[in-house]
Design goal:
This protein is of the alpha+beta class. The chain contains four helices and five strands, in the order αββαβαββα. Strands 2-1-3-4-5 form a five-stranded mixed sheet. The structure holds tetrahydrodeoxyuridine.
Amino acid sequence: MLSVIASLVKKSQEAKNQAYCPYSKFRVGAAVLTSDDKMFTGCNVENASYPAGLCAERTAISKAVSEGYTSFKAIAIASDLGDQFIFPCGVCRQFMREFGLKWDIYPTKADGSYQKMTLDELLPHSFGPGHLGGEKHK
Ligand code: THU
């Protein structure tokens, strides 16, 4: 699993190179690992109408879902921040939560160092599909 995470982190850094962020100039990349070990990447995609912009995490997850993958093991997030980890925003945490609480989030620093957290830790007491009578992810 360790080397898989190392390559997930690398993919997230590569995806960051595609960031479309002319307004914030804050580049973000993400790489999500599906339960059957496929990787999908994404970058932030900003918009002249600022709220229409999309975070890297939601880009990556939407790419996976649109290809038929809805079960995830992990997501790595990369930015240019050297002295702190890049954590997913609240909207992205909720977006991830749709697909379960037990998967791993890997916030990284620019040098590729990372920490591991579960979504449960990042978004406690969350609202999810089970509350609407949908699938209850563990
Ligand atoms: N951003 C992400 O893509 N992911 C995060 O986890 C934090 C923020 C983007 C959104 C926007 O394009 C830029 O970073 C500045 O907020």
